[in-house]
Design goal:
The chain is mostly helical. It is built from 2 helices and no strands. Keywords: Membrane, Transmembrane, Transmembrane helix.
Length: 71
C-alpha cells in the first residue's frame, strides 16, 4: 500500500465493501448471541435476532443499490 496509515477517507470504501462488512458484523453479533444463549437465554436470543436482521439488511441494500445505479 502507498501512503501513510491515516490517509484512508470514508469515500475510499466502495459500497460493496461496506455491505460485506455489515453482513460480517451481523454474523458476528448472531454468533455471540448463540454463545450467550446457553448462559443468558433472553439476551442471547435477542442478539441472534439483531444479528440476523443486520446480516440480512446487507443483501437488501445491495439489490437497492444496483437498481439505483441502473436508472
Amino acid at each position: 500500500m502507498s501512503g501513510s496509515e491515516g490517509d484512508d477517507a470514508p469515500t475510499d470504501i466502495e459500497p460493496i465493501g461496506a455491505m460485506i462488512a455489515v453482513a460480517f458484523t451481523g454474523a458476528v453479533i448472531g454468533l455471540v448471541g448463540a454463545g450467550l444463549a446457553f448462559f443468558v437465554g433472553d439476551l442471547g436470543l435477542a442478539l441472534i435476532g439483531v444479528g440476523a436482521v443486520v446480516a440480512l439488511s446487507s443483501p437488501i441494500a445491495y439489490v437497492r443499490l444496483r437498481r439505483l445505479r441502473r436508472s
